[in-house]
Design a protein that fits this description.
By secondary structure, the protein is of the alpha/beta class. The protein folds into three domains: 127 residues, HprK N-terminal domain-like (Udp-n-acetylmuramoylalanyl-d-glutamate--2,6- Diaminopimelate Ligase, Chain: A, domain 1, 3-Layer(aba) Sandwich), CATH 3.40.1390.20; 154 residues, P-loop containing nucleotide triphosphate hydrolases (Rossmann fold), CATH 3.40.50; 50 residues. The chain is 42% helix and 23% strand. The protein is built from eleven helices and 17 strands. An eight-stranded mixed beta sheet has the order 14-11-10-8-9-15-17-16. Strands 2-7-6-5-4 form a five-stranded mixed beta sheet. A two-stranded antiparallel sheet has the order 1-3. The relative contact order is 0.08.
Length: 376
């Protein structure tokens, strides 16, 4: 199991070692947790976690002050015989002399810090979880793009380093090239960094090794970064069906944590840097609750629903017009039939001969008489 030495703990957190005679390089911490030995100080050691750092604050110190000399000898001897990794006093509390004797006897580091118990407790757990997190090294490039950690993967020579270099020139920051050390700091979070030997370096085929920090400045490199997105680069395959909508996210599992993964086909003329930038911004939008593909789907669905509603309305109106026409035709036919049986009719034999001619002549004479009277 991976561990961290007490020496690293003291140096990283600026603690004070009260017993320098103890070689803290040989004391290994393997559990990212801290305990406060309230019950063990009373003599109750059932379920005692002796693989954790023991934190003593004001409450424990007050209780120690009330213990008799014989009780201290008994309890501290029993506590230290468990071979705990270290005892840390918060608030600059002075360790008891009997406890320091027992710590020296059994090789238990005794440490003092000015931090309060609450602050120290949280900081120790955070620091230990980072240092003792499960880790793995993978082949790839890690770049900070707009605050999103993008892990670029792919076969050798596919263009990972070239894409990272273009991103650096566009103002983004390199974390690691070729080898990325990944640590699992929680059930949902991964962080990546470069090994010390390759930090700030990029390998470019045909040119060799370049120092990004020396060429582009310190603002172009970063020591550690969360991994938010994986981009797999692969040669273009015209027979493969690539995702063109992005409705659903695809994931790649790293150390048991699912990370959103996009596969980008590589072919001459494609600007990978711009595509990586777009992928980073799109990922941030999805985190904020906006998905462009789903927005397009909603628009298409809404438009289809409106078209269906409009078509249904048109059919309804056409049916209404047709019904009106049918009803009108039926009622007119009925009315015509009713009227045709009641109107008086003239038999053809009763009409005088030349009836129409006589009527026209009469009308012509009357018209001429009227005209003559008008001009008299």
């Amino acid at each position: 199991m991976l561990g961290v030495t007490v020496t690293q703990l003291i140096k990283s957190n600026h603690f004070k070692n009260m017993i320098p005679e103890i070689d803290t390089d040989n004391v290994i911490i393997t559990v990212p947790d801290v305990s406060r030995p309230a019950l063990p100080l009373t003599g109750f050691f059932a379920h005692f976690n002796n693989d954790r750092i023991q934190l003593i604050g004001n409450a424990e110190q007050e209780y120690i002050g009330l213990m008799s000399q014989e009780r201290k000898e008994e309890i501290f001897d029993r506590l230290c015989r468990y071979k705990i990794p270290a005892i840390i006093f918060s608030n600059n509390l002075q360790p008891d002399a009997v406890l320091m004797q027992k710590c020296l006897k059994y090789g238990i580091p005794c440490i003092v810090t000015h931090q309060t118990s609450g602050e120290l407790f949280a900081e120790l757990i955070r620091w230990l979880q980072t240092k003792l997190a499960p880790r793995i090294s993978i082949h790839g490039v890690l770049v900070d793009v707009y605050g999103e950690g993008i892990l670029i993967k792919g076969d050798s020579g596919v263009g990972k380093s070239e894409a990272a270099l273009e991103l650096i020139k566009r103002g983004h920051r390199l974390v690691a090239d070729d080898v990325v050390e990944i640590r699992k700091i929680s059930d949902v979070s991964l962080i990546g960094r470069a090994p010390n030997i390759t930090r700030n370096f990029i390998e470019l085929r045909g040119i060799g090794i370049i120092d990004v920090k020396a060429l582009f400045g310190a603002e172009c490199v970063k020591e550690v970064q969360n991994i938010d997105l994986v981009i797999n680069l692969e040669p273009w395959d015209q027979n493969k069906d690539y995702d063109r909508l992005g409705m659903e996210d695809h994931y790649e599992e790293i150390l048991g944590v699912g990370v959103v993964c996009n596969t980008l086909p590589v072919r001459p003329g494609r600007n990978l840097a711009i595509i990586c930038e777009t992928a980073a911004v799109n990922r941030r939008q999805k985190k904020m609750g906006y998905n462009a593909a789903k927005e397009l789907y909603n628009r298409v669905t809404e438009n289809m629903m409106k078209s269906a509603e409009q078509h249904a309305q048109e059919e309804k109106e056409a049916a209404l017009v047709e019904e009106r026409r049918r009803i009108g035709a039926e009622m007119n036919a009925q009315l015509q039939h009713q009227l045709s049986g009641h109107l008086p009719t003239i038999e053809p034999d009763d009409i005088p001969e030349n009836y129409g001619e006589m009527e026209r002549n009469s009308c012509r004479v009357e018209s001429e008489s009227a005209d003559n009277g008008l001009y008299d």
